[in-house]
Amino acid sequence: MISSRISKIASWAYLAVLYGFIFLPVAVLVLFSFQDGRLPVPPFNGATLKWYGEVFADSRLMSALGNSLMVAIGSSLVACVLGFCAAYGLARFVLPASRLQRGLLVAPMTVSYLIIALGLLSTFNWVGVSLSLWTVGIGHVVINLPLCFAIIYASMGDHQKNIERAARDLGAAEWQVMTQVSAPMLMPSILAAFFLSVTFSWDEFIIAFLLSRFDVTLPVEIWSMLRSGLNPKTNAVGSVVFLVSVALLLILELIVFRRTAKK
Amino acid sequence: MAQATLETRENRRAWGFVTPALLWTVAFFVIPFVVMAAISLATRKGRDIVMAWNLDNYITFFEKAHLLKGLFVSLEITFTVTIISVILAYPLAWIIAERVPQKWQRMALILAILPFWTSYVVRSYSWLLVLAKNGVINNALLHIGLIAEPLELASTRTATVIGFVHFFVMLLTLTIYANLVQMPPNYRRAAADLGANGFQVFWHVVLPLTLPGIMVGAFLTFVLCIGDYITPQILGGNNELALPQVIMLQLGRRADFPMAATLSIILMAVVTLAYIACARWLKMERT
């Protein structure tokens, strides 16, 4: 009886300590983004929104934010369309060496981003492609395509196959089946893949750093801010990025949650 | 005959769906990898790359202590991080799965991985705020009088490990929790009925059944940790360099692209070895 109570107390204590550890840096980050002073470290001098004002007045940060959104949405769209088509082809038709094809499509998932970035950098240098947001976007499709393919492929069950067959029997052309029957049925997982890709691309540093030149994405711009040391402005922009990511996550959660609720 | 033509037509259509993704993967993943492998066999002449088709760079890697050390530093950090993260995450996942009431579990899990979504760069920066000489921890310790002088926490390997562990505890909690809730409670009940005590149930039943979750998480930890540049660069500083930092150094100051390519191939070989070691737990299952 007593031992079970002790283990219960120990459990909750452990939970509290680990949650403390997990949330400590985020709490410090957000708290000192409101710091009324030049250093984002204790003591806390009082709250001000000044640093947020500076973030939104900083044209370089704002254009980096725009670039990040553009690259994230663009590359995720491409990754989703390519991933959906490949999943449709491989799940609905019998193709030779389909295991090999699946393996090839998910292979980039097991390779470090640094290596993918270096490979692309070597190739772009060799072919003579100059670096821009386009090359960053290409890199982000490479890392997100496996994810989109795997998520959508895993959700293509056999019960949907029969509905598609019915549509075909009723005279729908293949592209009509795909766009008007399969895609709507699979929309929750397509959207999940899309939003997950957006968060990954939005957050990605090393590919964006190595494959861009003049126009950069937000993580790269934040990286260059770090050279000036600890600064409440960096806290403020970090908090904004966190908020955007959490918002994306919430959208994702609502979509996935709605799907599981329907089942 | 009619069946055959139908099948070829079907097949051609199927290829139409799969080909764009395959082409993309070949053009921007396979070919770049081949190009990089070829460059690793080249030498640097000033700012130019001259194809030499020899293994000189690989030999240099094993001869130059500062290059080889990068690999060992990376391996040490990665193993330390993986082990500490598993030890910390397992009880957390277990408590969430067993002690937290059913309806709060989802919430508890989402909370446990929420800081996962802070930006990559920002997460390391946040730890700098905590660990810096004038940061939160030193301030707190000085305040309660536990130390007289601020500790050197930032720019150490400890800082790198803390930053990594923070990230991977969240990841591992997720994979281990997923395994724990899949396990039917009857297994444990059966073991207990047959006379096993709490520890024996855990050691002989629960742990083996959750091993796949641990291994998937540990493998992900290994791959992401050993290839990461940001965390050691921001938190570890320049005192001892991890392999990705050495690679970036070749790119930047030394402009030695062939050596950077060589180091990347070596990094990839290490990850492949780790994959082979974990392969039997990592089977991709289609449900």
Automatic annotation (TrEMBL), chain A:
* GO CC annotation, single: plasma membrane
Give one GO biological process term. Answer: transmembrane transport
* Compartments where found: Cell membrane
Mention any Pfam family matching this sequence.
Answer: BPD_transp_1
Q: Which SUPFAM superfamilies match?
A: MetI-like
Task: State the UniProt keywords alphabetically.
Answer: Cell membrane, Membrane, Transmembrane, Transmembrane helix, Transport
Report the membrane topology from the UniProt record: Multi-pass membrane protein
Query: Does Transmembrane helix show up as a keyword for this record?
Result: yes
* Gene3D superfamilies per record: MetI-like
The residue ranges crossing the membrane are: 12-34, 69-91, 103-127, 133-155, 190-214, 234-257
Q: Which InterPro entries match?
A: Bact_Polyamine_Transport, MetI-like, MetI-like_sf
What family does the Swiss-Prot or TrEMBL record give for this protein? Answer: Belongs to the binding-protein-dependent transport system permease family. CysTW subfamily.
Protein name per UniProt:
ABC transporter permease
Automatic annotation (TrEMBL), chain B:
Q: Which organism is it from?
A: Thalassospira povalilytica
Name-wise, this protein is: Spermidine/putrescine ABC transporter permease
Protein family according to the UniProt entry: Belongs to the binding-protein-dependent transport system permease family. CysTW subfamily.
**Which topology term describes how it sits in the membrane?**
Multi-pass membrane protein
Pfam families xrefs? BPD_transp_1
Q: Does the keyword NAD apply?
A: no
Domain ABC transmembrane type-1 residue range list: 71-278
Q: Where in the cell is it found?
A: Cell membrane
Q: Per UniProt, which keywords does this protein have? A: Cell membrane, Membrane, Transmembrane, Transmembrane helix, Transport
Q: Which domain of life is it from?
A: Bacteria
The family database entries (CDD domains) matched by this protein are listed as: TM_PBP2
Looking at the keywords, is Transmembrane present?
A: yes
Residue ranges of the TM segments: 21-42, 77-97, 109-132, 159-180, 201-230, 257-282
